[in-house]
Amino acid sequence: MKISLPQSLTRIQKTLLLLSIAMVVFSIVRFIFWLSYPDAFSQLSVYETISAFVNGLRFDGSVFARFIILPFILMAFPLAWLDKRAWFDIWAWLFFIVLIGSTLLLLADIIYFEHVKRHLAYELILIKDDINFVFDFMRHGYIGALVLFALFTLALGWVWLTILRRPIKKSNWAPVKYIATFLFILIIGRGGVSGKLIEIIDAYGTGNSAYGHLSLNGVFTTMAFALNMDNTNHHFFSEEEAIATLGKHRTIIDPEYPLMKKNEGKATGYNVVFVLLESWNFDHVDSFGNNGYKVTPNFDALAAEGIRFTHFYAAGQRSIEGVQTTLTGIPALKGLPRLDAGIGVSNFTRLGSIAKDNGYETLFVQSSNRDSFKISGITAAAGFEYFYGREDIPLIGEYPDPEEATFGWDYDTLMFFKSKLDGLKEPFLAYTFTGTTHEPYADPGKKFHVQPHNAQGEAGFLNTVKYADWSLGQFIAAAKKQPWFDNTIFIFTADHANHLQKGGFLKSFHTPLLIYSPKLFKAKEDKTISSQLDIMPTIIELLGFTTEYTSVGESIFNKKSGYAFTTMGGTAIAIINDKAYLKHSLKNRLEAEIYAPEKGTVDFDAMEKHLLSLDQMSYELLRDNRWSR
User: Fold this and answer.
1) Residue 427 preceded by cis peptide, ω within 30
2) For residue 136, what pLDDT is reported?
3) Which residues are paired to 371 by β-bridges?
4) Which end of the chain is more exposed for a tag (fewer CB within 10 A), N or C?
């Protein structure tokens, strides 16, 4: 391949040429993104699709202009004695490294989009916590893609080198051209000539989410999130107005601590075993989704004897958010650290500590490594006495490759969990977090194969769910033989839904919730709209703890109005009720849809005010350390 270029180029010409190549690369990756998700963009017309690609140039240009503007000041500075290849090439190769890193991030963003139906946001900032998982994920499913990327890097490097080899010629009117180019790059970096810097929300100006997704890229969204973590508006009303709005949906006992609750129930002395199931989708569990997958017979048998909550939603899209909300009742909010980063507040409700204060022994077991997601520190902060991780769990099952399960084996974990439960003094509160159903899907063995196994895709997921369900059946069968079983309430739910559950926004958060205790509760279906934020208050009520606690959620059995509050990776928040849902960017309403028109009209303004009041008071109370007393 021969590149036709002038025999010599000025430094400014080289700079603009390299910038143009970077823009072309980003557009090619956007085209790959568009091809990868035809269903996500099928609603766009040809004109809207082309428009989104053109609009995307603003965001692509903004990324590179911000990266290149400071090096440009040096690489193209209008002094004749700097017209040397050695000087220019240093900055040009640094730009090449930025381009390669950005392209790799874009490709990762394409893969990630399948899981959460949005671009990367805060995930790159937190990747240090999951670096082993990233390597395992790539090793199991994307070796071929990495080889292709390496070849692309070599090819692009050759193009880069070809351009840089051209001699640098003197530029006429160099200071004028330099200033003009600087202003041009500055305008590109700002996303246009308007007074405001381009932001994520500008991609959604048409009100069409698909258009916005296609316009954006993962590098821009990650960069925008990092720059705005501490510069996000969460204040929409006076505190009095926000509290009054919340009072329409919950009982306010102290305006100084408006999310605080007081429980003065009679102590029941029941045990609670809480099982957080990795990525169990509502639709893949037949007793909930009724779709005939036939991979959850053991769980379905339990559901036939328990309380099935069929309108239950995850509060976020990552495992750590499921752990945080169920242990503390605190949502993951943009601009505030999560529980694994210290949460930034000293006064918050700790489920384990409340249980200990009420005479309970507490236990936490997870199938992955002790430091995965920093769970070991989280459980200590939440007040749990005993904690165990993968390093503590003996391997008792037989697997094709025992080391393949990045997040551990459910059977071994649950049987270890059961052995530790046997050693606890009643009453106890115990929590376990499974992991085999996390992608990449480890092969559990042929007896669990519904379809030929693969590390990605539905076949691998179904095989691991069948294995996880069998493991759960073995755990319950063993537990039934123990004297503590009849006095124990089992609570099962998922940390989040995964990308294999199709059907739009609601489905991306829809998970099963089952409360099982055949000696204590009659089987029934409960259609209350609820979420993971309601788990901790529900446990407190079920056990009759005498305590003050603070949570965005409330006991599922005692909700004044049914709703679920969810967050989307720091990019948006949403509220779901029994008629509709509404998404908000913290700057404007993104999407509002009635999903149950038979239930009557919807006041979206009131829904929006409730949502923003929840976000505002949660943020301000945590920021001011007024979450609880």
Assistant:
1) yes
2) 64
3) none
4) N
